[in-house]
Design brief:
With 314 residues, the protein is an alpha/beta fold. It has eight helices and 17 strands.
Amino acid sequence: MRKLAVVAFGGNALLKAGQKGTIDEQELNAYEASKNLVKLLKRNYNLVLTHGNGPQVGNILMANTAGNKLYGIPDMPLDISVAYSQGFIGYMLEQQLRNVLMENDMDPDVISIITQVLVNKDDPAFLNPTKPVGPYFTKEEAEKFMAENKSVFIEDKARGGWRKVVASPEPLTIFNMRSVEKLANEGHIAIAVGGGGIPCFYKEENKLQGIDAVIDKDLASSLLATQIRAHKLFVLTDVPKVYLNFNTPQEKSIDKMSVSDAKKYIKEGQFGAGSMGPKIQAAINFVMRSGKDAIITRPDLLGVDNGGTRITVV
């Protein structure tokens, strides 16, 4: 019987630092990322893929702003921009993964699923929005936006501009999770929860509506892995393992870490809130909810024995 794994790619795996973001660049990155997934298929895993969208959704928001200024095209809300990004990133991943599968004489179907994720409109995160999104504006432009639609902007003095910030609420339910689980267990590869999912809430009973927020991709991936009863969660990053005292002379890699150790290291401030911290928390959540292992590693180490850092119950 094949095992089920959720593999969470970061948005930077598809659009790397220093690149312009051309389709040629992103397709090549998607192709290289896809080659690593074959290792898991050959190790008897069925796969569900998730992905970040930070660089891509930022570009979408900048295009929205430019279109509004130049041509009066109505701005689209953030939830719609996340849906845009799920569509085009899913298309790239699906196409390049198909290319890699054909090269390896494999023929599972690949299905991209536009995924909504339920959040609580009363989540405390909405009282303190901290997640920066989109382009930089002048103070006058930011004040105009804040007056018009009650959005929140903060000044980034280092970059000389004002930027919108939104809440990052806790994901509660992954919609379409039953379909994702069924497709994956039938041997197809499902791509879901892009960018953490499209955030939505119940405006009233039985009436869903999108909301201006960003859901952490790793936390949503962890919840999906739990809800579809995955055997393993792989959280991919740009380092081979998790490190203590990262980027210091005392730096030390970790091969295996229990949940209690991970919680202790978080309290010690070992993991940055904007980098490794959410990945560790996502791993903790999955391990505690499922009793299964999570692995944090680099894409090229997928399927490699002892590759990455393994987070376990004990």
